[in-house]
């Protein structure tokens, strides 16, 4: 193996791709993609976020969140409503259909994450903190 194959950047990219593909495959029977799952699962944790707040929470581009939200709304998973104070702001919430779809998806992805982190044993919490520290570093 070349030294490039062991570089941190390459390994982070490979792990991210491995995770995305695994989640996409696991969620396919539920009719969800990884990106759709991220939006729906985030809506379980957030109280009627704006599209911008959801983009900040997920790390997805605001334009992509808007596109995903429109598609998820047309599929009956979420509701998009105008904010009562600032009508330029669109608020997002799960519909009952979205909730009954995402709850088993969260369990499925959680199980998948447990399998991924299993080799780390008791170091998994430290690994998560280190990943969070890396995500907090401004790059652009």
TrEMBL record:
SMART domains referenced in this protein's UniProt entry, alphabetically: HTH_MARR (SM00347)
UniProt xrefs under Pfam families: MarR (PF01047)
GO molecular function: DNA binding; DNA-binding transcription factor activity
Domain HTH marR-type: 5-140
InterPro entries: HTH_MarR-typ, MarR/SlyA-like, WH-like_DNA-bd_sf, WH_DNA-bd_sf
Transmembrane segments: none
Keyword Disulfide bond included in the entry's annotation: no
GO BP term, example: response to stress
Keywords attached to this entry: DNA-binding, Transcription, Transcription regulation
Protein name (database record): MarR family transcriptional regulator
């Amino acid at each position: 193996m070349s030294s490039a194959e062991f570089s941190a950047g390459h390994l982070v990219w490979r792990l991210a791709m491995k995770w995305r593909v695994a989640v996409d495959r696991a969620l396919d029977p539920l009719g969800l993609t990884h990106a759709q799952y991220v939006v729906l699962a985030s809506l379980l944790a957030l109280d009627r976020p704006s599209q911008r707040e959801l983009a900040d929470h997920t790390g997805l581009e605001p334009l992509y969140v808007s596109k995903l939200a429109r598609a998820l709304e047309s599929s009956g998973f979420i509701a998009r409503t105008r904010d009562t104070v600032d009508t330029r702001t669109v608020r997002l919430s799960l519909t009952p259909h979205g909730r009954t779809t995402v709850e088993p998806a969260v369990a499925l992805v959680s199980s998948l994450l447990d399998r991924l982190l299993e080799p780390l044993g008791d170091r998994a919490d430290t690994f998560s903190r280190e990943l969070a520290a890396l995500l907090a570093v401004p790059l652009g």
